[in-house]
Write a structure and sequence with these properties.
The complex is a heterotrimer of chains A (about 475), B (about 210) and C (about 230).
Chain A (H helix, E strand, L loop, with lengths): L6 H4 L6 H9 L2 H24 L3 H17 L1 H14 L2 E6 L2 H14 L4 E4 L3 H5 L2 H7 L3 E4 L2 H8 L16 H11 L11 H18 L2 E4 L3 E3 L4 E6 L3 H7 L3 E7 L3 E2 L5 H12 L7 E6 L9 E7 L3 H5 L15 H5 L1 H6 L10 H11 L16 H5 L6 H11 L4 H14 L2 H14 L8 E2 L7 H4 L4 E2 L6 H9 L1
Parallel strand pairs in A: 1-10, 2-3, 2-4, 4-7, 5-8, 7-10
Antiparallel strand pairs in A: 5-6, 6-9, 11-12
Helix pairs in contact in A: 3-13, 4-13, 17-19
Chain B lengths: L2 H12 L23 H11 L3 E4 L4 H4 L5 E5 L12 E5 L4 H6 L2 E4 L3 E3 L4 E4 L16 E7 L3 E2 L2 H4 L9 E4 L4 E5 L2 E4 L6 E7 L12
Parallel strand pairs in B: 1-12, 2-3, 2-4, 4-7, 5-8, 7-12
Antiparallel strand pairs in B: 5-6, 6-9, 10-11
Chain C lengths: L2 E4 L3 H5 L3 H12 L3 E3 L9 H5 L3 H15 L5 E3 L2 H14 L8 E3 H8 L12 E4 L3 H6 L5 H7 L5 E3 L14 H4 L1 H17 L4 E4 L2 H14 L3 E4 H6 L3
Parallel strand pairs in C: 1-2, 1-3, 3-4, 5-6, 5-7, 7-8
Helix pairs in contact in C: 10-11
The chains are: A alpha/beta (about 475), B alpha/beta (about 210), C alpha/beta (about 230).
GO molecular function (chain A): 4 iron, 4 sulfur cluster binding
Protein name (chain A): L-lactate dehydrogenase complex protein LldF
Pfam families (chain A): Fer4_8 (PF13183), LUD_dom (PF02589), LutB_C (PF11870)
Amino acid sequence: MNDIVPAASLIPADAPFPKAAKVALGMPQLRKNLAHATGTIRAKRAKVAGELDDWEQLRDTAAAVKAGVQRRLPELAMRFEERATAAGAVVHWARDAAEANAIAARLVREAGAEEVVKVKSMATQEIELNEHFAAEGLRAFETDLAELIVQLAEDKPSHILVPAIHYNRTEIRDIFDQRMGDAPAGLTDDPAALAEAARLHLRRRFLSATVAVSGANFAIAETGSLVVVESEGNGRMCLTMPETLISIVGIEKLLPETADLEVFMQLLPRSSTGERMNPYTSVWTGVREGDGPRHVHVILLDNGRTNVLADEVGRQALSCIRCSACLNVCPVYERTGGHAYGHVYPGPIGAILAPQLEPGRHDDLPYASSLCGACYEVCPVKIDIPEVLVHLRQQGPHAAGERAAMGAAEAVMARPRLWRTALRAARLGSMPWRRKGFVRRMPWPASKWTVSRDLPVPPKESFRDWWKERER
Amino acid sequence: MNAREEILARMREALQDASPAPEVPREYRRALDPGVDIVAVLVDRLVDYKATVHHGTAAIERALEGARRVAVPADLPAQWRVGSAEFVEDRGLTTEELDAVDAVLTGCAAAVAVSGTIMLDAGEAQGRRALTLVPDHHVVVVRRDQIVGHLAEALPRLDPAAPQTWISGPSATSDIELQRVEGVHGPRRLDVVIADERTGPLAGPAA
Amino acid sequence: MERVALFITCVNDALFPETPKAVVTVLERLGYEVDFPAAQTCCGQMHANSGYKDDATRLARAFDDVFGGYDAIVTPSGSCAAMARDQYPHLTGSGIGRRVHELSEFLVDVAGVEDVGAHFPHTVTYHPTCHGTRALGLGDKPLRLLRAVGGIDLVGLPAADQCCGFGGTFALKNSEVSSAMLADKCANAAATGAEYLAAADNSCLTHIGGGVSRSGGPRPIHYAEILASTA
């Protein structure tokens, strides 16, 4: 049995992406686990998305609904507040992470509790609610299997949907065995046995919890309802059993009406877990006498979202429904995993969301892409991620040396005569390598290329010479 | 300015120069092709999720096999309470009591064939949410007239103000190597009985 | 005789004259008159995608000046065609991109041919480049042209739709990740046992070729050169 070494402890979260990625690339087990898991889910997604003959029409509708939501955000947020309040919920507003955490902690204390059970939620990861609670002497227990694995390993999530995607079954067995406290003796690495261990571990806690914290996949303005999409039943447990439920919901999660679910609930499960429908979806509206929590709170969270909203091109990132399809198809994510991105939202969506949520802090992420476009192709809400990546690159700062080189290149390319002279000079200058046909080693920065690739040598005769000769 | 006012002001400012929203196209399907056997599709999807499917109300007994004490909503029709099990009506059962029964038997509000989804909305014969969550075995009766082909046909049948639970197979997880395994915190066994009744309303609760 | 303009791209201008020569050969074989405006340089893609919008805008304007008078502009590069079509409208408002055709688009959609009378008795595997496939939507057009080539033995490339890791300055800025992607592409290419690896973009082929030249595997070739071959 191996000691638990959390991946996040090895991959520097604050380092620039290329540096952190280099560390991740040097972890063969991590890469193997990621390639296996992303390969599995890619095939499943492609199969179930391909089953629907109206997949593209659904994507078009979803993209337009979300674009409409963004334009109508103030109106929809207020309508949601009004309807949810009328149904017995208490709606709070939080400008940033600190405010959301403070409201949540206060509500837990007011409920007389020191512990909460949690449904997997990206919003609470984003605001680091668990860490904040710990600092206040409150304990938050993750109940989603993958979140539980990450929490027990004292690691950080590396994927939006499956935060423990970087662990294989054997590593998970070891984590349970060493950290769970009540893992069954002789626990095997059979996924069913591991799921059973999680069931036993959490059962008492579910049945006795008094406060739960959740996020939401959708918030319906028309009715004031929240929707949580899940698989294991941990969500149902948290949303149903405690007396008090606190849901932290990003303002971009709003949908105008219930009927919109007929679009999004086809797209989301097929894009995320590759299922026709996820095992459990819960929809609740305020308080229901005799059924579920008697105190229902909703915290509407900004935390940078209105920054994103202000950018005409970048705002489409707010359409994201956190399905993770873009991570699963991304050749960069597949090789580096999520920790290298240094943000709670990794992968292609993270590369456009993180720099907009926290301006100035993730300027390296828009470059963590070859712009291959696989993300846009699978995105169920048609976020043109490559377009936003390029847009963000065009906003961000540039290193002086690069700026000079690019400027010089443009100055030459914008002048046809200079361009032709430069090409001729390159052909002459490369004479010594002509016989070999390629260059194997170059000084920096070209060494970044020749580290793994040979460089071709300009030809003796250019196309232009050939053309001129022919015209004669 | 309080948080609410400030966030709303930020939104309005962010949207000042925004281009208008596009028209929302609605070209997607809202129903399956006519002639498709929706019951067969539903059964196929449920079996794929590793739920067990039975036909006819008489099969409820088989679906409940092995269960001695079965929790039921108080308004569960009498004709569904078949077999030798003891039926325990939920008139405020405690969590411990719910945890101690062997199974729960309910009806549903609608079922969607194409995704194999059973929908509960706390209506007739469905009970509260904890009832269908805590017991490890859920037997749900679906009337033929409750089955629709498509999600778009099902949503209007649900009470939007009521708590809803959409169930597609037994509880499952894909969190280990993205491979789906059934059975975590929700009921690990799901039996679906497709009842003979074609229309409601149901017979009244047992006396 | 219909006249078309040839945009050879800066990469081919500097490094790969055989590709634009092949385009000329194929187009003339089909009866087109090919024009080569000598003032052409670069579409501006590297600048735009690296975040240098102003530089890219100037190059986009220059492209318009050079090619504005032509109804059809043919280029042997999926990514340069995609640049003109997708990004020029945002940079300069120019709609010239609609008249820029990647070679296979021009042959299949405009000229309406798939068999261009080529002969190439070799095993070839085909890598669908990302911008050509996804941004431009070339689909299987290059493959349809290749299938019609006499004597060719086309073999499938495993994980063909995976990016080779080039991505312009990505190959330098994220050299390690790019190299890891390249290693997988080279291994898949080598596993085919093909003599040649064909693609619709010499920038990607430079990258793959630069790797294959170390690890071994099929020789990179622009598919235009296969279409030009009658050997």
